[in-house]
Write a structure and sequence with these properties.
It is a single chain. This protein is an alpha/beta fold. The protein has helices spanning 28-42, 60-67, 71-94, 117-125, 143-153, 187-192, 200-209, 223-228, and strands spanning 8-13, 47-52, 100-104, 113-114, 129-133, 158-163, 168-169, 181-182, 184-186, 213-217, 234-238. It has a single domain (8-238), classed as Acetylglutamate kinase-like (Carbamate kinase, 3-Layer(aba) Sandwich), CATH 3.40.1160.10. The strands form 2 sheets. The protein has a 9-stranded mixed beta sheet with strand order 4-3-5-2-1-6-10-11-9, sandwiched between helices. A two-stranded antiparallel sheet has the order 7-8. The radius of gyration is 17 Å and the shape is globular. It starts with 7 loop residues before the first strand and ends with a strand. 44% of the residues are buried.
């Protein structure tokens, strides 16, 4: 299990993944755990980039729908939440001696580099972890879409989406105990069956550029490393 299958990967984390058992915020214990999982991938010699959501702090679409906040304003607040999560993850990684850079799609020079594609790729080539913050820098786009976009821009071999469940099911396994696990599926089937893996924009962008996706559970220690080494521990999404 020590031979990596990929040279460069992008790992997408939801903001909720950092909450642990809390209802909001960042759990220090979970942060340490996630950093250790990322380190296990970096230690394999794999060039690693990250995109983290902000749902544990602020969810723009929910605020727009429930509170009547302007959607653009709500989404910008969500982008700032991703910056907070990215900085927290950077700190956790650097405590494990993993050199890390945060690049933000909105300019916050005091705490993060501006997103510059060539600089990001240079960081990766030098073995640094790059965390892409603030989504695409535009409202109306999710961090899933931002992850696919950044993965394409840096020429990642695969996009790994870490979730609370162990892959893709034909229905919600929380609500339906008879939900069937899917080991391999094509992009179009995900769109046709409205499987809630990523939003349709993200899936369509991945399909157009033939970027393979892999959905797996981050909750089991060592899973990130297993995926990188080619073990079947989740669901692969590609052209079929």
């Amino acid at each position: 299990m020590n031979s990596p299958k990929y040279k460069r990967v992008l790992l997408k984390l939801s903001g909720e993944a950092l909450m642990g058992d809390a209802s909001y915020g960042i759990s220090p214990e979970v942060l340490k755990y996630v950093a250790a999982e990322v380190k296990s991938v970096v230690d394999l010699g794999v060039e690693t980039a990250l995109v983290v959501g902000g749902g544990n702090i602020f969810r723009g679409m929910a605020a727009s729908s429930n509170d009547g906040m302007d959607r653009s304003s709500a989404d910008y607040l969500g982008m700032l939440a991703t910056v907070m999560n990215s900085l927290a993850l950077q700190d956790a990684l650097e405590k494990l001696s993993i050199e890390t850079r945060v690049q933000s799609a909105i300019t916050i020079r005091q705490v993060a580099e501006p997103y510059i594609r060539r600089r990001a790729m240079r960081h990766l080539e030098k073995g640094r972890v790059v965390i892409f913050a603030a989504g695409t820098g535009n409202p109306y786009f999710t961090t899933d879409t931002a992850a696919v976009l950044r993965a394409q821009e840096i020429h990642a071999d695969i996009l790994l989406k870490a979730t609370k469940v162990d892959g893709v099911y034909d229905s919600d396994p929380v609500k339906n105990p008879d939900a069937r696990f899917i080991e391999h599926i094509d992009y179009m089937s995900v769109l046709e069956h409205r499987l809630k893996v990523m939003d349709s924009t993200a899936i369509s962008l991945a399909m157009e550029n033939r970027l393979p996706l892999f959905v797996f559970s981050l909750r089991k220690p060592g899973n990130a490393k297993r995926v990188i080494c080619g073990e079947s521990v989740g669901t692969r999404i590609d052209i079929g």
